[in-house]
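Anyone up for a design puzzle?
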């Protein structure tokens, strides 16, 4: 019951409704109250009180009478993120690693465990420990006990890392995995971002001799480290992503910076298919000068 209430409180905090979050206090124990209060302090950018409440929470949930190992791990994770944000990088990293290991032992495959892995992987990336970041992400396998939402986020971040390493072939494959999973789980904001990355990378070489990305994902084997590679995409895959993203992007043509529309126009031109009438017949509405040039 406490877990459900904490989740409801977190939703309220994300909506900046702190009064609603605090209204749940009578229904939960002290450790849970302190945990929620620390999240509210973080939202209010009150780092000092956030850390103070986290410390009290950790002490409370370690007590024999009010022991809660999962909440302890979550509190350590929050403390790690907070410490890292104020420059206590080593201490923060230690907390994040502790939380990941503990949750892996007592709640393997849970969303809390998945989030802990994502946090540790991101911590390594921020320290420029790219290979360690990739290795940490590998604990979230494509076919694993982790939820599709966690896997989708992980694949998107892995794809971004491969792009940084100029391993564009691997990046394209991971973006594709993230896109498919994001759609299936209703994470449309993430799906739109990854879809545009797929188009951006794929436009460098559209080649029908290339294996379809679904097959590439299915047949992929782990590699010890990333190597530089170029991206190529089969026109069938490019058509699929373009047809998915186009109706979403043209719902609103406003904005002085619309790289999504530029990519869509370039993709239609390369594929030799007609642009949607909403774009062609509303050139005067376009505010992005680059998009206007492409439509000339």
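Challenge accepted. My sequence:
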């Amino acid at each position: 019951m406490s877990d459900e209430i904490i989740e409801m409180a977190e939703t309220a905090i994300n909506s900046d409704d702190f009064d609603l979050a605090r209204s749940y206090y009578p229904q939960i124990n002290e450790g849970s109250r302190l945990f929620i209060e620390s999240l509210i302090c973080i939202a209010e950018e009150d780092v000092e009180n956030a850390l103070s409440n986290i410390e009290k929470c950790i002490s409370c949930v370690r007590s024999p009478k009010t022991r809660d190992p999962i909440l302890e791990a979550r509190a350590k994770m929050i403390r790690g993120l907070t410490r890292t944000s104020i420059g206590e990088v080593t201490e923060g990293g230690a907390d994040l690693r502790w939380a990941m290991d503990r949750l892996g032992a007592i709640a393997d495959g849970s969303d809390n465990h998945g989030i802990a892995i994502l946090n540790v992987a991101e911590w390594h990336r921020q320290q420029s420990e790219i290979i360690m970041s990739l290795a940490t992400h590998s604990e979230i396998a494509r076919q694993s006990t982790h939820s599709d939402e966690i896997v989708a986020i992980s694949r998107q971040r892995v794809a971004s890392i491969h792009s940084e390493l100029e391993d564009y072939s691997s990046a394209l494959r991971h973006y594709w995995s993230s896109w498919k999973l994001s759609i299936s789980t209703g994470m449309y904001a993430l799906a739109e971002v990854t879809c545009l990355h797929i188009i951006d990378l794929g436009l460098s070489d559209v080649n029908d001799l290339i294996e379809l990305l679904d097959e590439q994902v299915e047949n992929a084997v782990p590699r010890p480290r990333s190597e530089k590679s170029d991206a190529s995409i089969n026109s069938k895959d490019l058509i699929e992503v373009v047809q998915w993203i186009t109706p979403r992007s043209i719902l609103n043509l406003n904005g002085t910076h619309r790289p999504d529309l530029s990519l869509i126009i370039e993709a239609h031109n390369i594929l030799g298919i007609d642009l949607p009438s909403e774009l062609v017949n509303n050139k005067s509405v376009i505010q992005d000068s680059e998009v206007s040039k492409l439509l000339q």
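A detail worth pointing out: The CA atoms of residues 195 and 241 lie 6 Å apart.
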